[in-house]
NADPH-dependent double-bond reductase 2
Amino acid sequence: MASAEDVVVVNKQVLLKHFIPEGAPKETDMELVTTGTIRLRVPEGSNAVLLKNLYLSCDPYMRMRMTKHEEASYVDDFVPGAPITGFGVGKVVDSSHPDFKTGDYVWGLIGWEEYSLITKPQGLFKIHHTEIPLSYYTGILGMVGLTAYVGFYDICSPKKGERVFVSAAAGAVGQIVGQFAKQFGCYVVGSAGSDEKVNLLKTKFGFDEAFNYKKEPDLTKALKRYFPEGIDIYFENVGGPMLEAVLHNMRIKGRIAACGMISQYNLEKPEGVHNLFLIVGKRIRLEGFLVFDHYGSYPEFEEKVVQLIKEEKIKYLEDIVEGLENAPAALIGLFEGRNVGKQVVVVSRE
């Protein structure tokens, strides 16, 4: 009988075939490989952790990693011919790291594959609340939720009664930001790309108002309709013409948390914003931020949001796709607006 060290299994993987210099990515830019294998034991003398991957997160920032950058970005480019990597949830199969033991559940950066050998497990977070659906750690209790938390509370510095606008509000981050803002006592409006999503924002997530930006010929006038006295806080997920329209409607000393700009990721030449001088005249604070800089806030964030979930004081919507082979289509769907809620791929349910 083979020893544990001799157990080798097939390890299906999703690889990036080549860099994508411009335009929207396609499913054919990725490929499922079913011929790889992996040994179910960490290398002797290492500090590694071996994971069986359960859930994968599809996130807009992953598009930027598909392009080769001459200047280093805040995250490394993907490597053509190697597995795509992203945030996900896994179960520890073997570990030589003192912080993780066999059977632990973790979230962090993992490969788009059935098993991942994590040689630098410092970026993994142990999951303490296994009574909550594990897939939530790809979103509301993981990177996405922490992004919403620090972006709204730390970057935006909200005050009760302020007027808040959230773009891409039905997406993974936006739906959570809007609920944080409502709980804080703010007036909240969100934009989305379909009537179905607009309805969800108002009926499920509790936004005061919402609108379909695709039906608005003039975004500046649309925002003026919902914010006749102006916007105090803008949670920026879109960029381009939406940012320009927002600047026209910002109040003096308003704050903008620049979380992402999904409208720009597939463009050969990013769109310009032509009214940036309004930042000066209106004394607006516009601040970009990366969730990686705020990992120290995670324990506090996790306990607060777990309690909100248990008390049913926050709603969360997932768009779940079954099977690693369907991960490329799920990722592409983000840029076509197909997902409703947080896009999650199930690799295995144990």
Notes: The chain has a mean pLDDT of 95. The two ends are 25 Å apart (CA to CA). The CA atoms of residues 169 and 330 lie 19 Å apart. Helices lie at 143-155, 172-184, 195-203, 219-226, 241-249, 278-281, 298-310, 327-336.
